[in-house]
# Entry
Amino acid sequence: MCEEGGGFGYASSLMRLQRLSLEHFRSYEALSLDFGRENVHVFIGHNGAGKTNILESVSVLSLVKSFLAAEDDEAVRWDQQHFRVRAECSSDDGTQCSAEVVSQLTPRRQKACFVNDVRRSVGEMVGTLPSVSFLPQDLELFTGAPAQRRAFLDRLLSQVSPEYLPLLLTYQKILKQRNALLKHIAQGSAERSDLPVWDERLADTGAAVTVHRLELVGVLQCTLARELAALGEDWPDAQMRYERKGDACALPDIRNEILGSLQENLSRDCMLQSTGTGPHRDDWTILVGGRSIATFASRGQQRTAVLALLELQTSYLELRRGEKPVVLLDDVFSELDDAHQTALLQSFADHQVLITATHVPPALGSAVLWHVGEGRVSRSESVKV
# Structure
């Protein structure tokens, strides 16, 4: 999967967010921001001022859901029944587009997505405005729950593969139906003989999800050690390993592994009323010298690995999409020393970067400052820090 010598080779244009409009989103009744042609924008304000809300709205346009894993009703402004987020975007190659997401709570919950004012499905919308993000909670990526690490892969794949998100949603729907059937079996209102059709469907979709994830991990592995070395960690044998039951690589073989495991663990699943096999249970880690980074690395070393993964995500999106994503950095400089701040900003020097902070980061360089507070955002002139 890696070419000789490793590394990604590509020529890409810059995807730039030009204008952002919010309506009834979080703390903002209405907000309109014009980013112009500048690349680095820093939103300065005290904690709770509403800085993260701005970055979160961009993630909603990119992923059709919040990067905070929040439900839509949490993002609707108090006493309102909907939110609307819209962006005007452009690429250096001259491509212009608009992206809009509207979420409504009443009279019934529904969400609508628009690209260039034409309604699109969620799968078609995701990745229209490609983005990567770095949040304070990402520093717990290796020690947190496996669901956080699975979401890391799923967010990235959804932005580059039109079929991945619908496939993942289908898998989750089948999984939910199989779990419901397991509960009915435990209650005596269904028979075990009802399971094989769901096992087949779960194995089919689960194998396809697994293949996508394995391919992604293989690509990220190509330059992992190089990115770590650039940030000061000399781990030439660092490996990103996808962890699951089974070791097959081909789609039919993975399907057979999942199906066999479902059948082998049928009694346990019925007892627990939950499916114990499949990509919803998988995980991944970084190994150095055969040991997981979660077990031996210091907090500082884990922070470096998270930064390396951020840069790998960005490179992967450029490779697959041919355009540089918007980079969202939420209050991360409070966790980074000056050297890592400088390395991070230098690595994204040719990207549009939106940053939140309580004060101007010393390593910032040239940027546009925005002051956030009391539901208002005001722009300062571009400054050289």
